[in-house]
Description:
By secondary structure, the chain is of the alpha/beta class. The chain has one domain: Metallo-beta-lactamase, Chain A (4-Layer Sandwich). It is built from nine helices and 13 strands. The protein has helices at 59-65, 73-78, 97-100, 115-122, 129-132, 137-148, 199-203, 214-228, 242-245; strands at residues 7-17, 37-46, 50-53, 68-69, 89-91, 110-114, 152-155, 159-162, 165-169, 178-184, 187-193, 233-236, 257-259. The strands form two sheets. Strands 1, 2, 3, 4, 5, 6, 7 and 13 form an eight-stranded mixed β-sheet that branches. Strands 8-9-10-11-12 form a five-stranded mixed β-sheet, covered by helices on one side. The relative contact order is 0.17.
Amino acid sequence: MTDSDTYEVFAVKYAERDARRPEHFLGGDPHDVPMPMDYFVWAIVGRDRTIVVDTGFDALDAESRHRRLLRTASQGLSLIGVDAAAAPTVVLTHLHYDHVGGFDQFPNASFHLQDREMSFATGRHMMDSEFSHPFTARHVAEMVMAVHAKRVHFHNGDAEIAPGVSVHHIGGHTDGLQAVRVNTAAGWLVLASDATHYYENMEATRPFSIVFDVPAMVAGYDLLRALVAPGGVIVPGHDPMVFERHPPADPALSGIAVRLG
């Protein structure tokens, strides 16, 4: 790979909610103590291209689902110099409301999505509220409209979407969830998204409570490790500890944006 195939990667917090430990582990947890959840979008910034990962949610979802929307995805990304309105490429890790709900802030983007995720979000499993609850039907319908507008690139498994950036089907949390692997100056970095919500889900092999396929979620932990090889970095989807393990993107953005690699 050349220098132009390496990237800086940022996580930007756009929302938060109060939560407790039993909510985050399949089968609960004996310690009923606070365990907050942060909501992120990510930016992969290279010399020749910028790729955004996920789009956050909007004010309607924040109100209906009782989340604290601190800033829109576009407002958060602007703090690190990324213009959502001009972004050409967005990876959607999956179609849950908090990962796709802000997609209208990216009017010029093409979206990368797994075939299985679109099938899952529009298929028979959405008749079961256990699986449909994290989806917002309006977002899914809008993504179908984006398909007809020829703005969606579908993937059937693993694929390189740019030199040094690839998507990898994980499943588990949803049938078509994908992670994103990025080549950085320090080595491989994987944006796990909800393949592991918290470091603890993966590190202790304790699956998150919202899950479509438990064996696939557990197998996904090993796949994440294989994607980065020894010494690489895995970034969970919702863990406030990201701010403890990585430096701020800028001192003025402490608690808002971190530089992951």
